[in-house]
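User:
Care to share a sequence and structure tokens?

Assistant:
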Amino acid sequence: MARTRTNIRQAVAKEFGLRHFISQTSTAGGTTTATDVDALGQFVDDGLVGYHYYNAAVAWTDHVITDNVQSTGVVTFIPGHGSITGAQAYEILPFSATAIHRAIDEAFLMLFNEGILVRKVITRGGSGVPVYNGGFDYWSSFTTPTVDGWTAATATLTRQTSGNETNWVSDHAARLSSSQGTLTLDARKARYLADSAGSTIRLHAWVKAVAGSDARIHILENNSVVASSSYHSGDSDWHLLSTDDYKITDAETDISVQLQGGGSNAFFNFVWIEGGHSPDLYPLPIGLYPNGPTEIYISPMGTDVDNQTANVIPHSMKPLTGWDWFHYHDELVGQENGVIRWIRKPPSGYMLTFFGNTSISLPDDNTDNVEINQSEEILVSKVAALILMENNPRSGDKLWADRAGRLSRDIQRLSKGYANSDDAASLGPNW
């Protein structure tokens, strides 16, 4: 059963005892008050002072309770908000919602670093000259859809997440629609192509289009098209599009690749380069591989340009050795990057399959699913609750100390294998 941020926030609050948590709907309210005789009337006068009133419907959600009256079921809080009027869904929390969510984020990071709460990730790329994020596995933004390392122009870019347009060679497809446009590899990622100056390369990509004369692929020099594939036939099936062999201009350093489409729906999945000079470094999205891949396998690509096809699923995979991983900080753009360094460089024109562990993605919206199951939610909520207690110590409070001790014991038991991902929400690691 999928869990949301709201589920986890409420679970954290319940770790402090049910009397420290309420989730109800008020019967009346003003800018600084809420009335609920049944739920709030159970607390003695001033018994809720210092607790937090939370209302997800208003822009500012953290409000500290300064007074409560048992006979009327009224709580008073600061700061007030003009939107808090009439009946409103609310929560009473032992800490501010901001502090709870910050503790939740810390709990996820802590459990990932300890190897307790991780997700397996598999991505693929072409050996030889690397096309960064060529499987469109990592999207750096979903509010404004952005394929990490690529820039869309004119057409509307979206990530295809359902239907037979996705789950081809890689698990995600980039869709261009609304108007004819392009998706181009960014210059800072395209610099891995620079060593191919003076050599011959061929660009390949899996493409699906619903209209002819709409979708194709290009090799660029100095932002100008120098080689192109034929157009996709528009038969709504996946086909491998390939450029002709093209000799890169001697000493050229501004080399990139570009996908074109969008007059009608055009889908792109798994882009790679054949030929050229392979650099010793191979970039991978550090958002997917924060600690690098754990294993790399190599398999034949099976490219058949005449019939517009190649292997979709790896065949005869063999483990690849002779590589290491490091990450570094690009100060110019303020970005972390991760690269494989080849000690024994694999041959060009093969499929590479990367296996690794990634952290769980945390959406910002309260109602969005977090990719954990109910047992993992229990573990996360207990760790987050303990973080809150450790950040807010109460000297001499035996009940507080006893609760912290119980949480520590529960966390140790759960960390030994009680949590598993059998019923986790079906979301990708780059959700």
